[in-house]
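Table S2 (continued). Query chain:
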Amino acid sequence: MTNSAEAALQPNGGVRQEAAPAAAGSGPKRTARRRVRGFKAAAKDFVLGAALPAAALIAWQSASSAGLISPVFLPSPFAILQSFIRLAVSDQLLHHLLVSMGRAGLGFLLGAAAGLLFGLATGLFRKAQYLLDPSIQALRLVPHLALAPLIILWFGFGEASKVAIISSGAFFPLYVNTFLGIRNADNKLFEVARVLGFSPGKTVTRLVLPAALPDVLIGIRLSMAVAWIGLVVAELIGSQSGIGFLINEAKQNMETEVIFAGIAVFAMVGKLIDSLMRAVERKYLHWRDGYQG
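Corresponding output:
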């Protein structure tokens, strides 16, 4: 038997001792390769997603430069960009954006908190469902614009009415998804809880809420989107500040490019908020093995 074969048969032979460092170093390398592949995939997805808007902007700018589109009704992307830069340099844009985000954030927190609590109550308790759900479902089908005049009549044109309009929209998506998430939880979870002797509170926190988490996160994402849309309604009806006020003032002054700049701000901030929520979903729902297309 050769020396190399003897070393391989020994418990702490040279071959195994040399293989250990290589195996230890392979983990970080695999992690780095996975990160690089993930970054490349994200970059490809971004380029693919930006292709259609980029093509539309190029065609829009070309038509505007050729005089095919009236700048009064549809200003060129370059003119809109100039207005955006002018507003940003003068700090008007930042001021109005911070005001709008503060309103949307407060309205979302109040509406989403109420939606989560009512969703938990009706999802966990059948009597609460029979008592509350029919009325909530009826109110859910009333449009924002129909409720807005009544809310303004009750609260006036101050901040309270704007926050109330935003909250009324943010309430329903989270309520519905929380209720459905709890009711779609596997009934075997409750049987396991009874076998293990879990208290009602422990059953909810350890079994029911984790099972309902995908629906709850979707509800939060939808509530954020509806709160942002409700902000537009609130600020266009009556406001002295905010992006909606900026758009309304530009409409009165026939500054179409400023209107488009405000719309672009709404779109970009809304997309950023939605992307952040999708990142949260990926982090907390990474265990799901759903179809990715």
